[in-house]
Specification:
Blueprint (H helix, E strand, L loop, with lengths): L5 E6 H13 L8 E5 L3 H13 L1 H4 L4 E6 L13 E5 L7 E4 L2 E6 L5 E6 L1 H17 L3
Parallel strand pairs: 2-3, 3-4
Antiparallel strand pairs: 1-7, 2-5, 5-6, 6-7
C-alpha cells in the first residue's frame, strides 16, 4: 500500500504520459480534472501535439481549465473541456486530479512532478475555484 503523501518525477513525453496514467489510476467516476495552463510560444507546438495525440487519456472525466489569454485559438482546444481565461498571472501548467497534483515544466525535455497529497490537492483546488470565479469565459 502506498503512503498517504508521496511524489514522483517523470521525464520526457513518455514520462509525462506515465504521470497522467498514474494520476488517473484511482480516479472515481465523479472525478474532475482541473488545470491551469500557461500557453507560451516556446513550447506551444510540443504541448499541443502531446495533448491532441493523447486526448483519449482525458475523455473519461470532465475537465475545467484556466488558461492565459494566449491560449485562445489553440489547436489543442479540441479536447472536451470548459475553459476560462485569465489576464493576470496564474500558476503554470498544473493539473489537479482528485488527490493528485501534476506540475509540468515544458523545457527542452518535459518534466512532470506528480504529487499525491490530499492536503496539497485540496489547497490547489480551493485556489482554482477562487480564480475560476473571476476568470473570463
Amino acid at each position: 500500500m502506498k503512503s498517504e503523501e508521496e511524489a514522483e518525477i517523470f521525464v520526457g513525453v513518455k514520462g509525462l504520459k506515465s504521470a497522467y496514467l498514474e494520476a488517473f489510476k484511482d480516479v472515481s467516476h465523479n472525478g474532475e480534472n482541473l488545470f491551469f495552463y500557461v500557453h507560451r510560444k516556446e513550447y506551444a507546438k510540443e504541448s499541443d501535439k502531446f495533448y491532441i495525440s493523447n486526448r483519449k487519456l482525458f475523455k473519461h472525466m470532465p475537465m475545467r481549465g484556466i488558461c492565459n489569454e494566449e491560449y485562445r485559438g489553440s489547436k489543442a482546444i479540441v479536447l472536451p473541456h470548459t475553459i476560462r481565461y485569465a489576464n493576470f498571472p496564474i500558476p503554470g501548467n498544473v493539473e489537479i486530479i482528485q488527490d493528485n497534483v501534476i506540475i509540468i515544466s515544458w523545457g527542452t525535455k518535459p518534466v512532470a512532478f506528480l504529487i499525491r497529497s490530499k492536503e496539497i490537492a485540496n489547497s490547489m483546488r480551493e485556489y482554482f475555484e477562487s480564480v475560476w470565479r473571476i476568470a473570463k469565459k
